[in-house]
Specification:
The protein has about 280 residues and is of the alpha+beta class. The protein folds into 2 domains: about 130 residues, no CATH class; about 130 residues, no CATH class. About 15% of the residues lie in helices and about 30% in strands. The chain has 4 helices and 13 strands. Strands 1, 5, 7, 11 and 13 form a 5-stranded mixed β-sheet that branches. Strands 2-6-4-3 form a 4-stranded antiparallel β-sheet. The longest helix is centred in the middle third of the chain and has 16 residues. It starts with 5 loop residues before the first strand and ends in an 8-residue tail after the last strand. About 20% of the residues are buried.
């Protein structure tokens, strides 16, 4: 049974103090890009989407943010509402002493000042797949030591950032994941194709050697007549995935309703104000 909503915050803007980037440049781009360069004094994000930017600003996954109807997040977008898909190139500088929490506040203030963000926080019941291991533990081997990392993925969650071999492919036989991955990365990857997110156990960044085929290709489906595409698996396809994960990876998933703090976006502009 779902728990009642519990209101714990007021609609608010981020407090304006010294938690701002020194210099900021924002421009709209036509295409997405995975490039996320992040040093101690500078960020350069190329082709980042609004959902990705907000997730970084609050340090929360997609399912713990309540989005405006127009934001391109399929799982939580009402039917028949066409998304506004935009990408941005963002460069900013900051003091070398900036901590992770400082950085999040800087991104939040950037969104407040340049995109008119207004938000509040609530606790809501959230349906999640809890990830555990089957009896006997994981069926994956622990991965070998890593090679050199990719500098163009400096703060990305892609395994290539940590010098790990990784390949994701889609073909006639389905979706194949091969390479070194943590449980967090596996959960994040497969959550993109399910109607409920996967929450993973804490494994302290342990990498496993994964070679897994899911007999389903989300990109082989014909486009819907209303143009509202979704890449979410059906209930039967999800059961097939979980069965294969248990047999091949030793991973078990159970659906649970868990109270979680979420960020509710009350106001957000489509475009940035001028530099």
């Amino acid at each position: 049974m779902l728990l009642p909503f519990v209101f714990i915050g007021l609609t608010a803007r981020v407090a304006m103090g010294n938690d701002r980037f020194d210099v900021i440049s924002i421009r709209q781009t036509s295409n997405p890009s995975p490039i996320r360069k992040h040093s101690s004094e500078r960020i350069d994000y190329e082709g980042i989407s609004m959902p990705q930017l907000i997730e970084k600003a609050f340090g929360l996954p997609e399912h713990r943010i309540v989005w405006p109807d127009w934001v391109n997040v399929v799982r939580f977008r009402p039917n028949k509402v066409k998304p506004d898909v935009r990408f941005f190139a963002i460069s900013a500088t900051m003091p070398s002493s900036t901590t992770d929490e400082d950085f999040k506040r800087m991104l939040q203030n950037l969104l407040v000042e340049r995109f008119g963000l207004v938000f509040h926080r609530e606790t809501r019941p959230t349906d999640e797949y809890e990830m555990t291991f089957v009896a006997g533990g994981p069926k994956m081997q622990v991965a070998k030591p890593a090679g050199p990392g990719r500098p163009d993925f400096a703060d990305d969650e892609n395994p290539a950032a940590a010098g790990r071999n990784f390949n994701l492919s889609f073909g006639a036989d389905g979706m194949r994941v091969k390479g070194d991955m943590t449980l967090q990365q596996l959960a994040s990857l497969f959550s993109q194709y399910l109607w409920h997110p996967i929450t993973e156990p804490v494994d302290f960044g342990q990498y496993y050697a994964v070679d897994f085929l899911w007999f389903w290709n989300p990109y082989s489906l014909p486009p819907p007549l209303d143009g509202m595409a979704t890449n979410r698996a059906s209930e039967g396809e999800t059961r097939g995935l979980f069965s294969e994960m248990g047999k091949r990876l030793g991973i078990k998933l159970i659906l649970r309703s868990v109270p979680r703090e979420v960020v509710v976006i009350d106001q957000l502009n489509h475009e940035s104000t001028e530099n």
